C-alpha cells in the first residue's frame, strides 16, 4: 500500500456501526471481563482508549514501526522517551535543535544525571569523536529547527554502537517524506500538533518504535507517566492524517516557489531550504527522503526588515507553531529559541534577522505578494 493510500486506509478501527469516522470514546473506565483472571481488553483510558489506539496505530503504520504511543504534546513524547535512559548515560544531540528540547535537556534531564553533548550530526567524524563508553543515545532532527541542517541517518547508524539508541524527531518531514526507522533509527518522535493534525486545533505527540524490547519499556513509561493523548485530540489527529499527503504535496510545492523567490529578493541575504540545489544537505535529502518539506528559514538584510515582515504580512500569520494549512512565520531568536544565551544562539546562526517560515497551502502567488508588500511597506 502506498503511503498516500495508507493515510486513509493504513489502519482501520472496527467500528461496530460501520461508521467511517472513528468515534470519540470519552469513557475513562471500562467494565472488566466476567472472569477475574482475564483482565484483557480496555480497562482505564490512561492505559488505552479505542480512539487513541487507532491514532497510535495509524501513525505506527505510516512510520513502519511495530507500535506507536500518543501523548498530550510533542514535548510530552520527548520527555517520556528520554526516561528510557539512566542517570550517568550520555546522549549526543544535534547542535541545532528545537529550543524546547534544549530547555528540557539542560534544565530538567541534566539535573537527573544525564549528560548531553550538542554536536553537528551532519559531520559524522564529529559524531564518532563525541561517542563515549557511556553514550547510550543519539537524538536527531533532520532538517533541524530552525537552521535546516541535514543528518545522514544511515551514516549515523553505521557510526554508532549497536546499543546506542537513535531517536529522530520527524516533525518537519512527517512519514510522508521520511521514514527514519527504515534508515536505522530506533524511535521516531512527532509533534502531532504540527503536520499530522495540520489545522492548529489540537496538541499531540507521538513516539513510534521499531524494536520489541524498546516497545515494552516505552509502554510501561507511557502508562506510568500518564501524559496520554485525549480521545478528542486523537480524533482530530486521525482526521488530519487523512489529508496529510495532499497537504504535504501542496505545501512543499509552495515552499519551493517561495524559496526561489526569496533567493532573488535584494533584501533577503540567505535562504535555508533543503530543496534548493545550493543547500549543503540537498544531496543527502534526495538520498534518504521522498521530499524536502515545507519549512524555510531566511535571513533579512537588517533587523528592521525582519520586523517589517512580522508586522505587515496579512495572509502569513506571525505565530510560533508550524505545519498547519495556513502559512506561519516567526523569529526564533525571540520566540522558539529565546532561552538560549545570546552568544550560543549567534554561534548557531540564529540571529535577530533570521525568520522561520512554515509555508501553508494557500496560492503561492498570494503568499509572494504578501511578503513583497510587507517588505516594501
Structure description:
This protein has 377 residues and is an alpha/beta fold. It folds into 2 domains: 3-241, Type I PLP-dependent aspartate aminotransferase-like (Major domain) (Aspartate Aminotransferase, domain 2); 245-376, Alpha-Beta Complex (Aspartate Aminotransferase, domain 1). 37% of the residues lie in helices and 15% in strands. It is built from 14 helices and 12 strands. The strands form 2 sheets. The protein has a 7-stranded mixed β-sheet, with helices on both faces. It has a 5-stranded mixed β-sheet with strand order 8-9-12-11-10. Helix 12 packs across helix 14. It starts with a helix and ends with a helix.
List the helices and strands and how they pair.
Layout: H1 3-9, H2 50-63, E1 67-71, H3 74-82, E2 90-94, H4 99-109, E3 115-119, H5 124-130, E4 135-141, H6 153-159, E5 165-169, H7 174-177, E6 187-191, E7 205-209, H8 212-225, H9 231-241, H10 244-263, E8 268-272, H11 282-288, E9 295-300, H12 303-312, E10 317-318, E11 328-330, H13 342-347, E12 354-358, H14 364-376
Parallel strand pairs: 2-3, 2-4, 4-5, 5-6, 10-11
Antiparallel strand pairs: 1-7, 6-7, 8-9, 9-12, 11-12
Helix pairs in contact: 2-9, 3-4, 12-14
Which key features would you list for this structure?
377 residues, alpha/beta, Aspartate Aminotransferase, domain 2, Aspartate Aminotransferase, domain 1, 2 domains, 5-stranded mixed β-sheet, 14 helices, 12 strands, 37% helix, globular
